[in-house]
Amino acid sequence: MKITIYTIAAMALGAFTACQSEPDNGGYTNDPDAVRINATIGSLQSRVNSSESGDKWTAGDAIHVSNVTEGAVAGKDEAIYTYSTDNGFVPGDKYVVWIAGKENRFHAYYPYVDGVEASYDGFPLPLDQSGNTPGQEGYIGYADWMTATVPSASQTVDKSISLWFKHQLARVTVKITGYNNQYGSTLPVVSDPVFSVPGEYRDARVTVDPDAKVKGFMLADESASKLHSFMAILPAGQYAADATLMTLNVDGQTLTVRPSSYLVNTVLECGRAYTVNLIVGKNTASISGITVTDWNDGWNENGTAVEERIKVEGSVITTTEPGLLTSDLLDKATSEGTELTIKGSELNKDDFKVLSGWLVEKYNEDATREFSLILEDVTELPNAAFSSENPIDNLSTLKAPNVEKMSYASFFQIKIGELWLTKAGAMEVSKSWYFDYSGYSTATTYLNADKRIGGTGLPTVEVFEDVAGYAYWQYSWADVYTKDKNLWRFVDEAGNITDWDGNPVATE
């Protein structure tokens, strides 16, 4: 889960913008070093939610953010930020600030609940998880402990950092998939799901008595089939063969569900979602199967299958809608190489902020590693308002064959080696959608043949004089310009390539 913390520019889902009205909060609005926040969790921007899809924050959700850099400003090194549907995450009387001129480190955790001694390093497991109403006792969302870290970040022009939350506990959903025929047409009354915590190899960061019982959340099925589901958030660990996974009241009788061999032989892992299928009989309840996924991969909070909104297959990321891109997914797609393709839907400005921030992060890790990027279905390079503090040079090729519109600062101060924009027809370009640190584009730019001078396109050539009176040529297409006409290529429908003057260019 990603949290973006920033002061001047907003990033990602529900972000602040300069024109929005914000509370003053003791100088927060006018402090140029004040940290502002936007949160994303995994690929779904979610925390646990049992009655909906879990893909959004709820008003009142609170996170604790700390600047843990040595020399952090006392009194402004930690604060609580609470989610508001109008303004995103806003602080109370206190807020966090940057330390100028040095690398900053940040820690954060969710949930922050007044009176609960949770932290970035440890969490007391709530034993009542039976409700789904924020702010009320037993709210299951308060069991979804998540943490995030920014190990090193320099204060940029827009004061932004990217902070990705990860679930630190395991989600276990038990779903009744059928009843034995002893019940006939009259199905039983089911209630009171109670889960046991794993007794072996349990996560030491989680404070819970080894014999503790967790009152789980029951999602009632109001249909005639009564295929209820039950959920609890549990610490990582392993069940013994003679342990109890959960108990359930069926027609006034307490039935015990023993862990399956999988749960006995495998450790529950943090950040994973376990869906256990249950068959209920007159005097017994037995597990008929189990499915394990990443918490955020293709499953809703009721443990039932949903369309996979974003997936990674090799070096290809496929999305079903904008706003789903994360650094973790980009890392996964490039784990074995530097080629990357994103397809399936448009990308929005939040995706481009993630993408640009990720390129900067990879450059800071290894300045020699260059990536090749294909944006297969993107028709617009939107205004991401992203600016790298230090220009970077690690995007060897960018191909966006269907782009029709380019807006301000989609790739700002990120040097591109080859730029392929081969969409037939007109293209709308806003000022300064891209430039690298030379002030001129040094990318070899590939356009459709109809954009060549003499066609229907926009290329121009002009003569300028610099301050010393020397003349030089400037070759430009829209807001992409260079001093070197040899950096321009034009591609026809058959794939033939010519230079600025119409001469054929050999391809490898």
Give structural notes.
By secondary structure, the protein is mainly β. 6% of the residues lie in helices and 36% in strands. It contains three helices and 37 strands. The chain has helices at 261-265, 327-333, 349-365, and strands spanning 2-6, 36-39, 62-67, 78-84, 88-91, 104-110, 123-124, 146-153, 161-164, 166-167, 170-179, 190-196, 206-207, 213-215, 217-219, 229-234, 246-250, 253-257, 272-280, 285-294, 310-313, 316-319, 339-343, 371-375, 380-381, 392-399, 405-406, 411-412, 414-421, 428-429, 434-435, 444-448, 460-465, 471-477, 480-482, 488-491, 497-499. The strands form nine sheets. It has a nine-stranded mixed β-sheet with strand order 21-22-23-24-26-29-32-36-37, with helices on one face. The longest helix has 17 residues, at 349-365.
Helix percent band: under 10%
Strand content bin:
35-45%
Radius of gyration: 27 Å
What is the general shape?
Answer: globular
Q: DSSP helix count?
A: 3
Number of strands: 37
Indicate the low-confidence ranges by residue numbers. Answer: 1-23, 50-55, 297-307
Distance between the termini: 42 Å
Structural class: mainly beta
| Biggest beta sheet attributes | 9 strands, mixed
